[in-house]
Design brief:
mainly alpha; 6 helices
């Protein structure tokens, strides 16, 4: 079966190859490649012709694979040279009428330059009010003075008295900016986002609960509808079975009645025929006698 299919396909390929080469020669000879139609440009015609030439070469390879005749081989060589000549002509025309490849404009120059967000300097903390000359001294200064006086009393003969340590001024800390990160802006901007996400979560939860309730109601409705349909189908099936039994009984009864009626009909007809024959015979007997 496969051998017959292959032989039939080979015969079809031979016929198609001859017809295709003939059509290609006619097309290449009669086609006006110079005219450029808006509906079908010349370069589309050349591409179609090249595809047909490629298909013709494939058919030629298929038929040459199973060919053993020398005359057929020479004929196929002639077809191959014809295809080469037509392909050269079409390729030359395709190079001439092929549309020029235009590169699209780059998108990168059209994109806006990203603007870097400037870092806001930290706000300086308010400096404390300077102390008045007549004001009270700080507790740290009092403690240092007390320690100095005690040392002077104990070590009065020392030529090099201990120099008191400088008391750090409260205003020196305000001269340097604070390097701690400022989370106030971030927390202030994150609070509305958290509120929005919480509201969205609640809304989605409410929608999911509503959809769950709706699905439950749909399930109950469909189950009740299926139960009703099942009961209706069972009742219909029971009625059909009853009708089938009744029809079967009626059919048997009609068959018996038909056989009886035909027997009665033939008896009546024979009785009529016998009576008619008897009447005729009686009439002739009376006439003859």
């Amino acid at each position: 079966m496969s051998f017959s299919n292959n032989a039939e396909q080979l015969q079809h390929d031979r016929v198609n190859l001859q017809q295709l080469v003939r059509r290609l020669e006619k097309t290449v000879a009669s086609e006006d490649w110079a005219t450029d139609d808006a509906a079908r440009p010349a370069w589309i015609k050349t591409r179609v012709a090249l595809q047909k030439l490629k298909y013709a070469r494939r058919l030629l390879r298929n038929v040459e694979l199973y060919e053993v005749d020398a005359e057929a081989t020479s004929r196929y060589e002639l077809l191959r040279s014809t295809l080469d000549r037509l392909e050269n002509v079409v390729l030359e025309v395709d190079k001439r009428v092929a549309p020029k490849v235009v590169r699209p404009e780059p998108i990168l120059p059209t994109l806006p330059v990203p603007i870097s967000r400037a870092v806001e300097p930290p706000a300086p903390s308010p400096a404390p009010a300077p102390e008045s000359p007549g004001g009270a001294a700080s507790p740290a200064a009092d403690e240092s003075l007390a320690s100095i006086s005690a040392q002077d009393l104990l070590l009065g003969s020392d030529p090099s008295p201990t120099r008191p340590a400088p008391v750090p001024s409260a205003s020196s800390s305000t001269l340097l900016p604070s390097t701690l990160p400022k989370f106030a802006d971030k927390s202030a901007s994150a609070a509305p986002a958290l509120q929005n996400s919480a509201a969205l979560h609640e809304e989605l939860s409410a929608q999911l609960a509503q959809m769950t309730a709706q699905l439950k109601r749909n399930t109950l409705h469909f189950s009740s509808a299926l139960e009703n349909d099942k009961a209706f189908l069972e009742g219909t099936q029971e009625k059909l079975e009853k009708n089938y039994d009744v029809m079967t009984k009626e059919r048997v009864r009609l068959r018996d009645h038909r056989s009886k009626s035909w027997g009665t009909t033939w008896i009546v007809m024979l009785s009529v025929i016998v009576a008619a024959v008897g009447f005729v015979l009686t009439f002739f007997v009376i006439r003859l006698t």
